[in-house]
Structures are given as structure tokens and as C-alpha cells.
Amino acid sequence: MADRKKGMEIGMAEYANIIVDIYQGKLDKTFQYRVPERLKSTIAVGMLVAVPFGSRKMQGYVIELTDVCEYEEDKIKEILSIVKGGVLIESQMIALAGWMRENYGGTMNHALKTVLPVKEKKKAKEQKTIRLALHPVEAKNELAECERKHKTARAKLLVALLEQRELEWETATQQMSVSASVIRAMEEAGIVKVVSKTAYRNPVGGLDPGGEQKKLNEEQQNVVSKITMEYDAGERKTYLIKGVTGSGKTEVYMELIAHVLAQGKQAIVLIPEIALTYQTVRRFYNRFGAQVSIINSKLSAGERYDQFERAKNGEISVMIGPRSALFTPFPALGIIIIDEEHEASYKSETVPRYHARETAIQRAKMTDAVVVLGSATPSLESYYKAENDEYCLLELKHRVQKRPMPLCEIIDLREELRRGNRSILSDRLSELMEDRLKKGEQTMLFINRRGMAGFVSCRACGHVIKCPHCDVSLSQHGSGAATRLVCHYCGYTTIQPGLCPVCGSKYISGFKAGTQKIEQVVKARFPQARVLRMDMDTTRIKDGYEQILSAFSNHEADILIGTQMIVKGHDFPGVTLVGVLAADLSLYISDYRASERTFQLLTQAAGRAGRGDIPGNVIIQTYDPDHYSITTAKEQNYEAFYGQEIEYRKMMRYPPVWNMLYILCASKNEAAASEAAVALMGKIDQIVRENSEKIFPIGPSDAPVAKISDVYRKVIYVKTREYQTLVILKDGLEAFIKDNRLYQNVAVGFDFNPVNGFSNCKIQNGG
Predict the structure, then answer these.
(1) What global pTM score does this model have?
(2) What does the DSSP 8-state code read for residue 167?
(3) Which of 161, 170, 275, 692 is the most exposed place for a label (fewest CB within 10 A)?
């Protein structure tokens, strides 16, 4: 499949597609200009150029270089010049957006909105002060004159300024009741001077830097030395640090950051969940103080804008946050660290469906930075690349201070039922929880489900209550008269029926316990225990994560119950027992990554125990105790799990051995969605016949969730070894869609090597 001359390279392209003024919201409106001969060897994507625009001269950004003329030749104007000293960081972001558009699909508009998340300027907070502009002797004469003429407001302000020399604007206008018009008149008369300065909002301003620096052990130091020596020698690699839970990866990260900061560079630290921000920021702030800031979706638009401005201005040097932090406009980026790199949250579920890992590597190439990935349970993609020398593998095989790994036991829930135990808690787990309460130690209980129950079903006829708008079961929330059923896809809510709507049986109830139900059971079983619950329901408010985690960290609770957000990266030395209540809950979902997800969750959950001075215990409750993802997690044996799972992926032609393109057609009209998908499949078959590459299309068929919010969804899968083959295929399909009326009311989305699938799809092309 022949590639075309297009995209990122500096080259000899004939034309440039340019966006004029990225702050006007019309980001997808491009204009084509001819590249003059004198600029062909220097022009590149992302550059700021001067162009003729009507009768005016304007500046714009190059977003694509191409040999394809899209308009009448004689109507295309020529680029005037490359703007010297243009905004380098914005140019880098534009170039990165171009790369994302090319490699993940969607429009340039989507890509630009992703890499420039704060396009619209927010009004900055201004701190205004009033100073005396006169010599004190002159000011006293002015005061006497004001008193003589009974100008009491002026006199009041002059008295205060003669005493303090400077006043805050709010003090003068609110506490002293001096009007703004009086102050302006005095300023115009040269009596006072009003000074304004921008006061940026700082979301971590309340933290106190401790300046703490821990001494590295031999393993940690070896990893740091390897990366810093190669960095200083000019080598720029992607490193994968595979470190067991509790091995001290964060200390390694901080040493690496300190090294690049000392060279005048900046650092980005990606974390998978907002929930991790609290602990992570504290540790980094203790080390680097006010150089650290955060970005996440919980911040206001003003706070987000200010953090990016602070980054551009050099006020901060370390940004911490989820994947959006990757687009922090640091002008001299030196290192990008992706902690818990295996997490699915690093893959965007909205267009462009980029993966933060690959996008970080691309940004690092543009900025001469290094990328460091870290995990106790690396994604198969990363470990596969490390095995094939694309990444440099470094290992931390032991916990800090040689602490032992927790003792892990598997409890067969089938045996519990045979013994008559119908509780969510196995006898062994209850016994150990009782023991920890007596000793004053802490317990974490994990289940990957929130709410009261997974779904509601009738035990008489088997009917499951489903969402009328989505092809999924409703989940139970609340209790008693307040019980309601909620769709986690579209938000539909209804009351729980007392009788089965199909057979009229009264035996209708929730199946599988969620966090809310577990909390009730635990409180009933251990009334003396202080219990906290952490899930999406209890953390909706701003700082909700921090409040719960801080309380548990300060030992204000004995037991923490939660979903997967509690098992990722948290370090609680007081926790000596972890209970996984339904280990196989994620094993048999319709996802080829199910075994990998289960292994990662179990290993990460087990890793929360025994991180202090007291050894820990882990109880894994399951109905499938012999599954390899569970047995290898019990042993914390990543290599054994990887060996079995990669063979399965090879056999089934799944990533990372093969690459996969997931194509979604969505419409409120089921027939239209089907017709559009069939037409796309025909185009794919045509492309496959015309090319020699091994391309394996599958479909079209219903999506795993066939309907969401009354939108019907059809999918096509395409497998091939070469990722670039899929990119070119996607480009051909986009061109086909653009010129075909079938897709006017059908949204078509593309996802490369899907991680989470498509949970939402707006009715728009390119979507």
C-alpha cells in the first residue's frame, strides 16, 4: 500500500494547509497556500507563517504539507514568509496535533482541541495595589488641602498611605469605603499610582514543602544511573521500569526529574486517575516545592488556564496529572514519566482516540526529551516492545528495605457456598478482618463495581431489567424506599419494581454485590469498625478523593471499601490486609484484554498490603480459582502470566502481536447504520483485493453494546501486522465517507488497538 507524501516531515512539498488564528474557534477551517521554492527546504508542520488573507497579511500555523492541490491552481496564493521567533511551544503543539490526526483519525479540529485544551483565554485574577505617587512632604500638603475642602474620602486614603505607603485595592474600596472613582481621580491627578499584577490561581498553594529526599537503594540507584548517564550522553530512549509493588518507583522518578531540572528542563508526570493526585502531589511537592503543579478535570476553567500560563512563563517546572497533562506547554521539556503505564485510562475514549503512551513518545521526539514508563504489571504492548528492543527494560525486583511480599491466599467461593456461607465475606477474610481490628491495623476491600448490585434479575423466570435506551442491564443504587435502577451508559434512572414485570414473582433482587452493599455488610458484621467507601458516588464533589484518602492515611478509619481507584498506586503503611471480593468479576466480559485486566487488578490490589513494617495478607475470593490470571497474580509472577497471554494473542491475531482497527458506525436509524457499515466493508474488501498486505477484516456486526441512548451501533474489525497499513486504510475510508451521502446521518469512528471500546458516539461525521 503505497504511502503518500504528506504529514510531518520537512520536505519539498508543493502546498501547505494552514489554519489562520487558532483562538477563534474555527480550528477546522484550513486554507491552502503554495510553498515558494525558497521555503521548501525549511518549512515544516507546526511553523508559524505569514500569508496573504484577502487584502490583509495574517499569521497562521502549518498543519499539513502535501503535493495534492485541493483548489484551482491559479487561485492558490503563496506563503509570504516563515515568522522568525514565532511561539515555539504552540508550533510544537500544532505539529503534535497533526501527528495525532494522522495516526488516530478524526479531524484536525478534534486534535487541536485536545492539544490546546485551554484555547480560550480566561480572565486572569488581578491583584491591584494603591501606592503614594507623591513625596511624603507633598502628600501631607495635599492632605491638608483635602481636609480644608472637606474631601473626606481623599483625606482618608492619604492618611492610610502616609502610614503604610501601599494598600490593597480591596482594603481601600471595601474596608475604607473609598470609591473607585475617587481613586481614579487621584491617580489622574498624580497623587496615587494603581499597580496591577496577575495573580495566578495555584491549586497546590496550600501544601508545605518538606524538602525530604530519601536515599536510594542499590536497585533504584542502578536504574537512575543508567537513564541519567545515557541522557547526559545525548541518548533519548523510551525506558520501561518494571518494579514490583512497593519497590520505590516514585523515588526513582523524583531523582530523574531532579536531574533534568538541574539542566534547566521541565518534567511531566502522568498518573492514571485523579484519585492518585493527592498522594503523588504531596510527595513531589515535598521534594520540589512550588515548582510543582497539577492539572485535572476537577479544576475550574480559570485554574486550568492559569496552570498552563504558569508553565509557559517558567513559573513551574513539574506538572502532574492524568493524560491531559501531557499537553502542558513547557518550552523546554526534558522528561515525560508515565506511572502505572498499563492503565486503560491513558487511552482516550473521545476523538481523537489517542494513547498517551505513544503520543508522549512522539512529543518527546519533538522536544529532545526522554520517556520513562513504570508499572508492576506492564501492559502487554510495552513488555512486548521491550522484548523486541523497542523499549529499554529496567527492573526493580525487590521492595524497599527488603520488605517481604504479602502472603496471598485464594478462597474458592463455591466451597464457601457448600459450607452454607452466603455472605459476601468468606470465613477466612472475616477472621483476618477481626484480627486486624484487634491489632489496630487497617484493611482494604476491593470490588470492581459501584452501587448496590451489578444487575437486578428475577430468580423465578430469569428476567434481567435492562435500560430501555441501551442494550445493557440497569444497576441497583440506594436502599429501601430510595432504591433506584441506573444505567451507567446514558444515565437513565427508574425505581426498582417490587414484582417481576414479566412473571409477577416477588423474587426479584440485585445480583452481585457492589461497594454500597459491602459497606452495609461490613458495618453489620463489625459495628465497632470505622468504615470509609470510595467510588464514583462518594467522590463526585471537588476534593472528594483527597478527603477520603487523607482520612484513611491519617488512620481515621479502619476499613476502606472501594472500586479499582483504591488499588492504584496508593501507599498506606497501616494496611496489612487486602481483600479482593470478586476476583473473576472481570474475567468473562466480551473483551480480549479481560485476562490481562484481571491479572493487573489483582496484582495491584495485592500490592497495597504490607507496605509498612508489618507483613501483609491478601485474600482473593473467586469462583474460578484455577484460571491462570488468578494463580499468577497470587504468585505475583508477571513473566508466567505474560508467557501464557502472549501465546493466546499470537494465536488470535490480537495486539500487541497484530494491530487492530475498530470501526464504528452509529445512527439513530438502525437501517442507516447497517447500510453504512456494509458499504464500508465493501470498500475495505476492495482495498484488500488491490493490495498484497495481509489484511483480515471482520464484520459488520452489532457492537458489544448494540444500542446506547437510542443510537444503534455497528462495528467492523480489521487486523494486520503493520500499524501504518491501518493508518493508510483509515485515510482511504475517510475519503470514501467524505464523498458519500450515506454518511450524512451516520457517525463513523475509528479506534486503533482499542482499549475501552466506544462508549459514546455523537451523530456527526468524523466522530
Answers:
(1) 0.77
(2) E
(3) 692
